[in-house]
Amino acid sequence: xxxxxxxxxxxxxxxxxxxxxxxxxxxxxxxxxxxxxxxxxxxxxxxxxxxxxxxxxxxxxxxxxxxxxxxxxxxxxxxxxxxxxxxxxxxxxxxxxxxxxxxxxxxxxxxxxxxxxxxxxxxxxxxxxxxxxxxxxxxxxxxxxxxxxxxxxxxxxxxxxxxxxxxxxxxxxxxxxxxxxxxxxxxxxxxxxxxxxxxxxxxxxxxxxxxxxxxxxxxxxxxxxxxxxxxxxxxxxxxxxxxxxxxxxxxxxxxxxxxxxxxxxxxxxxxxxxxxxxxxxxxxxxxxxxxxxxxxxxxxxxxxxxxxxxxxxxxxxxxxxxxxxxxxxxxxxxxxxxxxxxxxxxxxxxxxxxxxxxxxxxxxxxxxxxxxxxxxxxxxxxxxxxxxxxxxxxxxxxxxxxxxxxxxxxxxxxxxxxxxxxxxxxxxxxxxxxxxx
Length: 437
Hints:
The protein is an alpha/beta fold. It has 2 domains: 4-348, Rossmann fold; 359-436, ANL, C-terminal domain (GMP Synthetase, Chain A, domain 3), CATH 3.30.300. It is 27% helix and 27% strand. The strands form 6 sheets. The chain has a 7-stranded mixed beta sheet, with helices on both faces.
């Protein structure tokens, strides 16, 4: 199976990082040079995941050398990075062009482990997902089979590389030999759209929060006419946003690929083709990637969604000991609750852990969030400890406990409302519920 880190596709496409530009041949030379400075014996190499050429070069060099890469989220400070370095006994730390040899001790690492990625739910002692070389190659190959990526394409790689979806965009474009524009800029910045236009970017990848920003900016005011397609992953789009995208993409004849995935499945597990998207309800996830399988565990119309495929992770790790072996998992229980539609398509309706039980009644917090966001003019998110619903509302909604209780079908004493200025988010754009506990 093709390895994206081999850069095997001859291509004239460019990797652009600000003023610095490399073609694929030049990138390959840089990767080989970086590889020559790494030891031949497998090591644990921590790399701060900047969206930059130095990161891409060192990351590909480490994979090419058969090492295990521990990716560090650039949005976290050095103190948190140090916790990870100490916890896993990293041999090297690479931050930009700076390479530091940390721990000379030889560590025993499972030869299959290629990458360690944090999960969006990690709290306290760090826990990472172990991904193998086969996980990376199989998922990357499947993605390039279902998305129309070609050598002549160019994508903005603006999602964090410490996030599995952002990283998979890099992988798939490298495998095909497509152009990649690296950047730290927000969608809100003029610089983002200047680069977008200058380099004739013809695909747009985003998480739900990315599309929320895009709508705030005004779809018609952005240079989206040059797009070949749009693609989304990283969580469920709100019903309102889903319908707005259907209307916009349908009117513009712009293909939209809605995708579903998890870090534990090396980024992506399912994709909905554009024609299906235009007819599907919010939360529908399409079909499993090639050579993979998605199904409801109970065999009923609704229940926990399970996944099978070569991209299932090799287990979690919270210590060096956990890196000595790989778990052989054939089934991934996603923790998502899915509903089977009449046409056989699956629809995500919530998370098992996002089901509260108040006074003996089960309440789907994700579904309730969607209802409240439609009810109020302000954005809101919900947490619960099975005794009380805690509703966080952006703005100054007052005296709405009874209204919320009526929608949730619970007593108003079980509802507590907090007014907040902004909804806290993780670097991947998802709601940081832990910050609201």
